[in-house]
Specification:
Blueprint lengths: L1 H17 L4 H28 L5 H23 L10 H24 L2 H8 L7 H8 L5 H15 L9 H9 L3 H27 L1 H23 L1 H6 L3 H25 L4 H8 L2 H13 L4 H20 L2
Helix pairs in contact: 2-4, 2-12, 2-13, 2-14, 3-4, 3-10, 3-12, 4-9, 4-10, 5-9, 5-14, 5-15, 7-15, 9-10, 13-15, 14-15
């Protein structure tokens, strides 16, 4: 009997391991993915709380520079060989433009609007991977994916309420009359396309080499743009308060990326990315707690719907 019991126990452990569901790793990757979501939500709060007077492109330049330096440090400490971009240069150039657009819009939306609006709308980014995925691989969402699309859109529509929000079109019109909502939607659009570019380039030369090249190129390009358009804004960013804010924002970004990357080595990408979308819920809670943003119940429900829809889209791939 003891031998039979041991056999059953061993078989169960093997089955769990083959499914990737051992309790220890499952808890670790979940904690890492949730930590990545938290760092993103805190980034929104840092920008709104401390960086409202810093030009958005200056924030982008500093964030990318800090990220590039962090990955350079990774190569120096680990001794890992850097893979030259080679044929991946077009993807790196495209990612730089997409990051500038996405991060600039996101910084402006977070600084000037409600992060409890920005977070849930940014969670729509998986919707905008549908087109590039269809072009690059010919793949379209499964039935589960279309359910996720409907849930995400329902969450977005439910963000708007109150006077003037009559009917579906009225809600949508009222929501996107807000500058922060439009900026967040633009950021989600760029992020959706960026995800497709990131996947291709990371597979071509490896994630570390791609990330250091992408962050470095984006930092250099953004700094050049800021020098030409707003040199005073860049100079002001070296003030002590702004310096602490920008470096902290950059380190939060690097930390979130690191946690997400490590989680991806322990669980399926769909699981990790679905948990990362929980930053929308955390952004709503931080917006209410730190800044007294209104409509907590409505925005929290919208964020949960958007996250659920994103999860369906990701699991359907």
């Amino acid at each position: 009997m003891a031998g039979s019991s041991d056999t059953v126990s061993n078989r169960e452990r093997i089955d769990e391991r083959s499914a990737g569901l051992l309790r220890g790793p499952r808890l670790i990757w979940f904690a890492l993915a949730l930590g990545a979501a938290l760092t993103q939500a805190v980034q929104f709060a840092v920008v709104k709380g401390r960086a409202r007077d810093i030009p958005p492109l200056v924030i982008v330049a500093w964030t990318q520079a800090v990220a590039c330096l962090a990955w350079v440090g990774f190569f120096l400490i680990s001794g890992r060989a850097f893979v030259p971009p080679g044929p991946a240069w077009p993807a790196i150039a495209a990612s730089s433009l997409l990051v500038i657009g996405m991060s600039g819009l996101l910084a402006r939306a977070s600084a000037r609007g409600d992060i409890s609006i920005v977070g849930p709308i940014l969670a729509l980014s998986p919707i905008f991977t549908i087109l590039p995925d269809a072009v690059l691989s010919g793949a379209l969402p499964s039935p589960l994916g279309w359910v996720g699309l409907a849930l995400s859109l329902a969450g977005t529509v439910s963000l708007s309420g109150g006077p003037g929000a009559v009917g579906l079109l009225g809600r949508v019109r009222l929501l996107f009359a807000r500058r922060d909502a439009l900026d967040a939607l633009g950021a989600a659009f760029f992020l959706g396309f960026l995800a497709a570019v990131d996947r291709w380039a990371a597979l071509a030369i490896g994630p570390p080499s791609y990330l250091v090249s992408s962050h470095g190129t984006t930092a250099a390009l953004t700094t050049l743009i800021v020098l030409l358009t707003d040199p005073r804004g860049l100079a002001a960013s070296f003030g002590p308060r702004n310096l602490v804010t920008l470096v902290s924002h950059g380190l939060l970004g690097v930390t979130g990326t690191g946690m997400q990357t490590h989680a991806l080595t322990m669980a399926a990408a769909a699981y990790v990315n679905a948990i990362r979308r929980m930053s929308a819920v955390l952004a709503v809670l931080l917006g209410r707690t730190l800044f007294g943003e209104p409509d907590l119940a409505r925005r929290l429900a919208a964020a949960l719907l958007a996250c659920l829809g994103a999860a369906f889209l990701l699991f359907a791939k």
